[in-house]
Amino acid sequence: MRGKSILLVIGGGIAAYKSLELIRRLAERGVKARAILTGAGAHFVTPLSVSALTGDKVYADLFSLTDESEMGHIELSRAADLVVVAPATADLMGKLAAGLANDLASTALLATDKPILMAPAMNVRMWQSPSVRRSAGILARDGVQFVGPNDGDMACGEFGPGRMAEPLEIVAAIEKMLEVRGGALDGFKALVTAGPTQEPLDPVRFLANRSSGKQGYAIADALARAGADTVLISGPVEIAPPSNVTLRKVVTAREMLAACEAELPADIAVMSAAVADWRPDIAANSKIKKDTEHKAPAIRLIENPDILATLARHKNRPRLVVGFAAETDDVLANAVGKRARKGADWIVANDVSGNVMGGDRNQVHLITAASQEHWPEMSKTDVAHRLVQQIARQFQERS
Fold first, then answer.
1. Domain spans, the chain
2. What's the fold here for domain 189-398?
3. Where on the phi/psi map is residue 349: left (φ > 0), alpha (ψ -120 to 50), or beta?
4. Strand order in the sheet with 189-194
5. In the annotation, is 260 catalytic?
6. Which of 97, 118, 104 lies closest to 61, judged by CA?
7. For the segment 127-160, what is each residue's pLDDT rounded down to a tens digit?
8. Catalytic pick from 52, 140, 156, 299?
9. Helices 17-28 and 47-54 meet at what angle, rounded to 10?
10. Of 177, 283, 351, 354, which shows the fewest CB atoms inside 10 Å?
C-alpha cells in the first residue's frame, strides 16, 4: 500500500477515537491520510489531534472560502485512492443512500469517483432498525464496501452488533481494496497445501481432523490474484477450488509430501494443511469387524512425514516457507518453538479451541524471526489477502 492515499471521513460517535489509531496504522504502512472531520465528530476528537497524525490540515467546512480556493470539495473527494468513513454513522449512511449533501462530508461522498469503504458504528437498535438496514442495502448495491460492525459492549451499556471494527481490521479491508491485482507476485511460483489428510485404517475408516480447507483455499486464490503461478495441493474437502489455480488432489500425508516435492522448485510455500501427525502402521484390506467378545482392536500408530520441515530443509527449498500452527494451549509459545524447530521462515498461529476449523472467520498471529504480529479476528478471505500483502512486501524488500 506504500504510496497510496485515502480520504478519511470521521463521523460523530464515541468510536471516533479509533480513527486516530487508524491514521497511525496507515502511516506505518506508508499510506497518506487526509481527513474530513464532521461537526459531530469534532465533539469526540479534536482537529488538532487529527492534524498532528495526518500531517495535514483538517477539512470541516463546506463553505470555507480558503479551503474551496485551495482544495475544493470536488478535488478533495477525488484526490485519494480510496474514501474511508470511520465511524460511519446512521446519519452519514442515510445521507449517501438518499443522495443528500448538506455538509462537506456528505458532499464529498456524493462527489467522489473513488471506491468507498464504511466502518459503521452505532447503537445496536439503530443498526438493526429497518431504515438503517435499508440504507446499508442501498449502499451495498451501489458498490460501497463495509467492514464491521462487530458484536460487543456498547458505550451506552447495550451489547450486540454495532461496535466499529478495530483499526487493524479496517486496515486489512483497506489493503484488500487497494490491492493491485495480477501484478505484485507476477513471475513467482507459489505452492499451497490445504485441508486435512486422511490416514486409512481399513477401506471404510480413517484418521483425520476437522479442517475444512477454507483458509488454504482462500490463500491460494489470493496468491493467484496477486499474479503468482499457484499450485494448490489439497486433502479431501467439500469446497470448490479457485478457478485461477492448479489443483492437485491427495488423500494421505505421504501423498501430499510427494505432490509438494514434485512441484519444486517454487518461490513461495504456504503450508496451511492440517496434516495428520500419525497413521496406522497397517491399513487393513477389508473392513475390521467386531470380534465375538466386542473387544476393540489394538491400533499401532507410526509417525507421518513432516512436510513443513522437509520443505524447509529441501535442496530445492522455496525462498519463503510459511507454516501454520493450529494450537489449543500456549498458542504463541508453541508457534515460536515450531518455527525454530521446523526451519520455517514464518508461522501463522491460531487458536483452534473454538469454532475455527470449518468456520468462516479466523484470528491469527504472524510469527517471524524478528517480530510477532497479532491480527484482529476477520474473515478467512481477509486473512488470506493480508498474508499475501505481507508476502509481496517481503519480496519487494528483498529485490
1. 5-178, 189-398
2. Rossmann fold (3.40.50)
3. beta
4. 246-249, 229-234, 189-194, 268-271, 320-327, 346-351, 364-367, 372-374
5. no
6. 104
7. 989 999 999 898 988 888 899 888 776 666 666 6
8. 156
9. 10
10. 354
